[in-house]
Write a structure and sequence with these properties.
By secondary structure, the chain is mainly alpha-helical. Helix content is 69%, strand content 2%. The chain has helices spanning 2-18, 21-43, 48-54, 64-72, 88-97, 109-126, 131-141, 154-179, 181-188, 192-197, 203-236, 258-287, 290-310, 316-324, 326-329, 350-377, and strands at residues 341-343, 346-348.
């Protein structure tokens, strides 16, 4: 009987969200944008002719012979022109590794290796790593073959960059628009006391609302993100996902493919949406006004991003915590996060401990909301 009542309340709350024009219109707009982004990430950046040129050096070993060809087909600064873009993507990768104080014709493969090692060491120093963390990454770095073989990175960049863009839209628009009304609408309509005075207006109503909000927030995010990735796979194929991540982020010490990075990124995005949904539902109850919730959500996102940009990494506990939040962490450069968490002598990377942190904070916000809801019952 209780379960039936919970199910009835849950379905009622789902219907309430789905009857919100703001929630549905936002969802439909983002769903359309998922396909637009899926198309634009490739065709909007490079023409079919340029993409066919990129393929001409795909599978080539990155050695001094390839560097000589690159220099023959670019200007003195290492840039290609529109008539011959064969080395455009390779040139971007090369310039990120080359010594800017050295002429391009003097740069060798050995120089690229030295510059990469120096860049990684500098990143470790700026991150204030412990001796144990440095040893961990030294071992991981031995697994990487550098420079390896060149592959066209356009598709992989499209998958990863588009997924990050989708995450921003989900956090800023879908979840606040859909979930801000879950608790706030009852306060604004002056029906909150009636709900609490009803037979099942206790914790069952609270958890039914939470579950309904999570269903829309997480379910909608899965559909939109899945639509983007699915369209990319059907339209452009998955061939670009098997290349090593060092061709996209050369200063990383993670030994993974672009496809492996995409799977981890997608998982963190969805778990991050669970946390964002929990925070939005908490704000809906605490602030009692849907517009205030939406404004606060945007403000939190921008505020966290700004704090992360100016906070010095030498304040490690605070800066590392801020860096782990979905508004900051979810980025194509998250493979440059070298700081680890040490639990009983075992180190965990950002891909391992960020989802756990999100789940813990989700439980905390739901528990806090239940405490506030319980106080109002009395």
């Amino acid at each position: 009987m209780k379960n039936n009542c919970f199910g009835t309340i849950y379905l009622f709350e789902i219907k309430k969200i789905l009857k919100s024009k703001a929630a549905i219109i936002t969802f439909l707009i983002l769903l359309v944008l998922a396909f637009v982004f899926g198309e634009g990430e490739i065709s909007g950046n490079e023409s079919p002719e340029a993409r066919s040129k990129f393929a001409q050096i795909d599978g080539r070993v990155i050695d001094d012979n390839l560097l000589d060809e690159y220099r023959e087909n670019t200007d003195d600064a290492g840039y290609t022109d529109d008539s011959n873009p064969t080395f455009k993507m390779f040139g971007s990768w090369f310039r990120s590794l080359s010594d800017h104080g050295k002429k391009i014709e003097d740069v060798t493969i050995e120089d690229l290796i030295k510059n990469r090692d120096a860049g990684i060491q500098e990143a470790k120093e700026l991150s204030y790593l412990t001796t144990g963390e440095c040893e961990y990454w030294e071992d991981k770095g031995k697994e990487i073959v550098f420079p390896g073989t060149w592959h066209d990175t356009l598709a992989a960049r499209g998958y990863l960059g588009g997924a990050v863009d989708m995450n921003i839209l989900l956090i800023l628009f879908l979840i606040p628009m859909g979930l801000s009304i879950v608790f706030a609408s009852e306060y604004q309509n002056k029906t909150d006391q009636v709900v609490r005075a009803s037979k099942y207006g206790d914790k069952r109503t609270y958890y039914a609302k939470i579950l309904a909000g999570m269903t829309f927030g997480v379910g909608g995010s899965l559909i939109i993100l899945g639509s983007f990735i699915g369209y990319m796979a059907l339209r452009w194929g998955t061939g670009g996902l098997d290349l090593p991540i060092i061709l996209l982020n050369p200063y990383t010490s993670y030994n993974m493919t672009a496809g492996g990075f995409l799977l981890r990124l997608a998982a963190i995005i969805i778990i991050g949406c669970i946390l964002t949904s929990a925070v939005t539902l908490f704000l809906s109850q605490a602030m009692k006004n849907s517009l205030a919730v939406m404004g606060t959500s945007v403000g939190l996102y921008l505020g966290i991003s700004m704090i992360s940009a100016v906070l010095d990494t030498n304040i490690r506990p605070v800066s590392q915590f801020i860096q782990m939040l979905p508004a900051v962490l979810i980025d194509t450069n998250m493979v440059y996060e070298y700081r680890l968490i040490n639990i009983f002598g075992k180190y965990f990377t950002v891909f391992e401990y960020a989802p756990i942190m999100y789940i813990i904070f989700t439980i905390v916000f739901i528990a806090l909301g239940r405490f506030i809801y319980g106080r109002k019952e009395r």
